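Same chain as my last thread, 252 residues:
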Amino acid sequence: MKNPKQSSFSTGTGPVRLEAILFDLFHTLIDLRDVPAGTSTPELLGLDPVTWSRKVVEDSPHHALGTEADPIESVRMIAHALDPSIPMEKIIAAAEARPRRFRAALLGVRGEVLAMLQCIKGLGLKMALVSNAGIDEVTSWEESPLAPFFDAALFSCHEKVMKPDPEIYHRAAELLDTRPENCLFVGDGGSREHEGAAAVGMPTVLLLALLRPSYPAVAERRARNTTWVVESFPELTTLIERLHLDGLPSTP
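reply #2:
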């Protein structure tokens, strides 16, 4: 477990009580590479997966904010921005496959993830999910074994606000009836999510347990601008147990 910042429990006003954990979803709690190959959108469209992912995450706000409700048109806008020659039949097939693919990922959660969440619940901590997600990606959320663990789930397509906007972190804390400084944010670092969490006073964890095996180059490029860097779910569980006892570092 690495602590890239010089955080101390003895400075400022002293340690702050940990009351809640905010989690990202994709590449943090679920890995789409656990779904059978050949079903991903970039594979069906003949595009590079990393290029597609970067376009979706960094340059397609209509998708994450749900402002384009037609799933086929949403995929077409992204696909044709990358390659205008992709035929509509491929786009339609890719759009129709997306809900099935994300449902499989949401239902097939790894046991080590569920064990970690069970441990956190056992500590009496509240949990919220804060995810930049399109409408077609979260239609099966309520069926997921993840859902019962969370006291609140905030998806950008429903909230009409996305990370790293401070508003979505404030909403999550309010729904959990706590303050941002009493929350810990955990994510894989996409969408500058840790910057947004830190901006509202939340200590942060960069979790690489799923990202590093699937996208090692992306994991290496992730900014180490968090309070902690963690490589596995057992390591994260140990950190949360310690913070539950000792408290969070106070923010300046």
